[in-house]
Fold this sequence. Notes:
This protein is an alpha/beta fold. 35% of the residues lie in helices and 11% in strands.
Amino acid sequence: MRLLSSTCGEIRRRGLGSAIFHLLVVLAVSLPCLSCPDRCVCSSQTVKCQKQDLDSIPHSIPSNTKILFVTGNNISSISADSFPSPLEQLTDLYLSGNEIQSVDSEVFDNLPNLVRLDLSNNNIQEFSERAFPHSNSLQVLNLSRSFHNYSQTNDVLNNLLSGNLAHLTVLDLSDNDLLVPPDNMPASLPSLLTLNLQNASIVSLRNGTLTLPLLRDLHLQDNRLKNLPSAILSDFSLAPGLHIHLSGNPWRCDCFIEDMVAWLKNSTQVVDAQNLTCAYPGVLRRQALLHLQQTRLKCAGNMEGVLETSYVFLGLVLALIGVIFLLVLYLNRKGIKRWMYNIRDACRDHMEGYHYRYEINSDPRLANLSINSDV
Ligand SMILES: *[C@@H]1O[C@H](CO)[C@@H](O)[C@H](O)[C@H]1NC(C)=O
Ligand SMILES: *[C@@H]1O[C@H](CO)[C@@H](O)[C@H](O)[C@H]1NC(C)=O
Ligand SMILES: *[C@@H]1O[C@H](CO)[C@@H](O)[C@H](O)[C@H]1NC(C)=O
Ligand SMILES: *[C@@H]1O[C@H](CO)[C@@H](O)[C@H](O)[C@H]1NC(C)=O
Ligand SMILES: *[C@@H]1O[C@H](CO)[C@@H](O)[C@H](O)[C@H]1NC(C)=O
Ligand SMILES: *[C@@H]1O[C@H](CO)[C@@H](O)[C@H](O)[C@H]1NC(C)=O
Ligand SMILES: *[C@@H]1O[C@H](CO)[C@@H](O)[C@H](O)[C@H]1NC(C)=O
């Protein structure tokens, strides 16, 4: 096939013979050159080889192909051998759903005008940093659901991004287990406009990893973000035209989220700000972040909380003491009654004695008598 396609190129270039000869040449040579590969469907400049159990990319792709689908097959790796002859006009290559594990060096060297590459739904474990030619025009790269082993993903992505992707405008990394976004994006992707990190198990954002000055659309919905620290918020404000999607994250509404809530209320960047809700603590679950009152944002460890709990505790202890006191009184009611009677009797005796003495003292005659009797 390689032989045929090169002969084909030569004859077309020569193509100045007689009209009949030219016609014969076209019939004899150009036909196989532009003929459709086995198990594929060709229409105008689009070739589709879908769900055919192919274990490699067919070699006889017509040289004028613009759009090529080899999807839903069983191709475990792609390498320089996958595209042995130049496909100068190819702009769109769809390789989704193939279980591709490795993307080797120089694989796309024969596709100099590739603009859109779809590698979604694969199982990529190796990606050569030399996969793309040094000067390439790749603009859209789809790696959605392409990585199954998260312990390898960041290495693979770092490799991939250190290739030359200066013209990339759209990167789709959705539906992968990334945990954190790759950290060399600002250096590698100066032209990036759209970054899709939806459902990528992202637990935190490190400042500096998303400082992409041209970025217009950032999809971060359906991840595991609990808060956005202020360093990230200031990274975002460096990209004034940015639209951010943040819904579907389990926001933790404690005192640390105050900065983010203030930013949300002021910023016009968050497209779905209305839809952000708290996941923790339980009392604030499903409360909209935009309608949170600052006084309800508490931290378990902060002073206010401690004071409040200590007041409650003190109150409980006092109440308990009161109850015990009443109980003791109740159990001793007979003793107390007896004791009260005793006291009353003692008082009465005492008062009577006092009264008697008073009467004696107040009567001058008796007073003399008593003085005399004392003597
Ligand atoms: C895919 O290819 C592998 C070998 O590369 C083979 O073991 C497997 O059976 C193939 N799967 C299908 C569905 O053909
Ligand atoms: C990437 O591929 C997935 C599924 O394979 C698709 O849903 C998504 O729209 C694609 N992304 C882009 C940017 O084309
Ligand atoms: C994931 O990658 C690590 C490191 O390369 C390897 O040890 C582990 O077996 C892989 N796990 C799976 C499920 O393939
Ligand atoms: C999220 O991504 C995982 C793979 O990482 C996938 O299994 C799951 O279906 C995705 N969820 C949605 C809602 O797309
Ligand atoms: C991240 O933020 C910290 C503190 O705000 C700062 O010291 C550090 O330099 C920042 N890192 C980057 C890469 O911007
Ligand atoms: C919003 O933020 C900008 C810049 O940080 C600030 O100038 C402006 O006063 C803020 N607006 C409100 C209503 O807080
Ligand atoms: C917010 O959520 C509602 C209901 O789930 C949905 O219809 C709406 O499109 C969402 N808005 C945005 C901006 O995502």
